Amino acid sequence: MDKIEGKPYLVKNMLTGKDNKTYDVVRVIGFLGGIAFILMSMFVVYKTTVFNYIDFGIGLASIIVAIGGGAKLKETTEPE
Q: Mean pLDDT over residues 55-77, rounded?
């Protein structure tokens, strides 16, 4: 496992392509979108104290599918 000063850098490995050096736009946008989705869900619960599991699940599943689809489409253009 790649390490920087003895600590694994998981986030960099999640956001880079096959070469672990070039950041992938699809993965970065998906990561930021996922974080924003969770933060907005927390904000809605804070303001309304209502949490709808079905809407949250559908929204999260659509984000996961979009990230996976985008990564698959971009797979052929990644540097080795």
A: 85
78 pLDDT more than 80: no
User: Residue for token digits 């880079």?
Assistant: 16
Domain ranges of the chain: 3-77
- Residue 63, CA distances (Å) to 7, 19, 20, 27, 37 in order: 29, 25, 23, 11, 9
- Cα–Cα distance, 28 to 26 (Å, whole number): 6
pTM of the model: 0.71
What's the helix, strand, coil split of the chain in %, to 5?
70, 10, 25
Extract the tokens encoding 65: 């599918």
